[in-house]
Amino acid sequence: xxxxxxxxxxxxxxxxxxxxxxxxxxxxxxxxxxxxxxxxxxxxxxxxxxxxxxxxxxxxxxxxxxxxxxxxxxxxxxxxxxxxxxxxxxxxxxxxxxxxxxxxxxxxxxxxxxxxxxxxxxxxxxxxxxxxxxxxxxxxxxxxxxxxxxxxxxxxxxxxxxxxxxxxxxxxxxxxxxxxxxxxxxxxxxxxxxxxxxxxxxxxxxxxxxxxxxxxxxxxxxxxxxxxxxxxxxxxxxxxxxxxxxxxxxxxxxxxxxxxxxxxxxxxxxxxxxxxxxxxxxxxxxxxxxxxxxxxxxxxxxxxxxxxxxxxxxxxxxxx
Length: 320
Ligand SMILES: [Zn+2]
Hints:
Blueprint: H1 4-7, H2 30-38, E1 43-48, E2 51-55, E3 60-61, H3 66-69, E4 78-85, E5 88-95, E6 109-112, H4 113-116, H5 122-140, E7 151-154, E8 159-162, E9 170-171, E10 176-185, E11 188-193, E12 205-208, H6 215-227, E13 231-242, E14 247-256, E15 270-275, H7 276-285, H8 296-306, H9 314-317
Parallel strand pairs: 1-5, 10-14
Antiparallel strand pairs: 1-2, 2-3, 2-6, 4-5, 7-8, 8-9, 10-11, 10-12, 11-15, 13-14
The structure holds zinc ion (ZN).
Zinc ion binds at residues 144, 146-147, 149, 162, 164, 167, 169.
């Protein structure tokens, strides 16, 4: 599990190297779960809003024992069985945005995962992303989408069942798919920026998959809507869990047919074709920045950049 043989290129993406067996078969074993919840070796990743607990100058994610959590666990709005590694059972403990679990502050500091992810060990970032994704789903699934009644958590936190007897619908954790695509044409790739990003930041194009649409069709539609570029030869590359708030990024390469760019839907402030030479030069000059290396966006750009002999993106960004 989690190695390259299973995950291929995706295993190198941020939030992929979980290092946990999920043990879905144990989610229905209420007695076993109850024992694990109180077991001194079990560990809990606290999630407060979108924040996770870290400690150290070079930050590491903190997973607390049941004793360290103490009475705070009673205030958790969600407790989720994440899985097991090396005989240790891991849970997520989610606390509401409004109510800071201040008594846990002695164990570290709460930081936003999105900003901290690239500083954390890959396995820690992946587990925190998993924990955040599950806790966020619980927060948004407290009421039944069919009848509006309250729901309750079951199956180790992997099901929420509607409490209305005439409904009883079961709701499951969800991941909303979004495509992300590097469009290449000759020596160039197509990069764009949204107006609210920091100055100079460019990235590949992305957008949510709509109902009734394949991933490939979503790639073609998003690129055309955002830049006026038609694409062909859409090829899947890798994927990445993206818990901001509950997504899965599905990454592609595509070939751009036309060179002319027309910003059609106003989502981008700028889009342009960039060659490796331009990218390297502007990275060196500091006039262009790329997304964090933890993002699949960075990995797609790196994969394209490094495909030409003699070019290595890490030499220009300092990322490994
Ligand atoms: Zn219902």
